[in-house]
Amino acid sequence: MNVAYWIVATLLAVFYLYAGGIKVLHSKERLQPMMGWVDRVPMPAVRAIGTLEVLGAAGLVLPPATGIAPWLAVAAAIGLVLIQLGGVVVHLSRGEARQIGLNIALLVAAAAAAWLGLERL
Fold it and tell me: With 0-12 CB in 10 A as exposed, 13-18 as middle and 19+ as buried, what is 93?
């Protein structure tokens, strides 16, 4: 289970570090082509989501790697599940049901990381 956790957690951390980083650093105009939903969400909220994604990425990796409060990895994974649930809601509210595939995949991966993280405790 340890190897499975590290594979899932590392892949999620890389994805969320990138996705969260661009939400924090890029302007609305640069995000618009990649993320159409930013037109209906205030930029402070977009930046907050990006910050939570970056923190989630760190939370998946750093606590288990250092052995300090490894339960935080489970909390980070659950937080990422909640972010993806929010993403599904936003896409469905915009009539973009075809766009939720990535959200569902990330949600399942984050749920798997939470479960595997619990197994590690």
Answer: exposed
